[in-house]
Amino acid sequence: QVQLQESGPGLVNPSQTVLLTCTVSGVSITTPTYDYMWFRQAPGKGLEWMGAMKFAGNWYRSPTLGSRISITRDLSANQVTLRLFSVTPEDTGVYYCARDENWHVDLWGQGTQVTVSS
Question: How far apart are CA 107 and CA 73, in angstroms?
Fold first, then answer.
């Protein structure tokens, strides 16, 4: 059974870098043609796509977030990692990892809360 599990720091101070990890079990993250995406949802707002790591190892990001995010992967741990730089309270929300095939998401993690506050 394939599962996605997000993990993160929970509470961070403004201007810090948030590191979120998506641990994938049950399938290798290099398996074609699945990509792994990051989404977030701020309180009272809709779901926002942030970026994705493709099975081949290349990745792409939302133009809105631009250089504020970086996505990497660790093949030995079967993990996809999101870094969000220079966070502000507006980055508060629930962050989700999802598996995608041809722009169709078929599996979600349970989400991890990130709160940016001093």
Answer: 18
What letter would DSSP give residue 16?
A: P
Residue 103 has pLDDT above 90, yes or no: no
Gap between the Cα atoms of 22 and 79, Å rounded: 5
pLDDT at 47 over 90: yes
Angle formed at CA 80 by CA 118 and CA 57, multiple of 5 degrees? 135
Contacts of 47-55 with C-beta under 8 Å, sequence gap 24+, read 47/96, 50/82, 51/82, 52/100, 53/29, 53/80, 55/29, 55/30, 55/31
Any idea which residue has 């504020």 for tokens?
68
Dist. CA 98–CA 90, nearest whole Å: 22
Give the model's confidence band at 34: pLDDT under 50 very low, under 70 low, under 90 confident, else very high. Answer: very high
Instruction: Share the mean pLDDT of the chain.
Output: 96
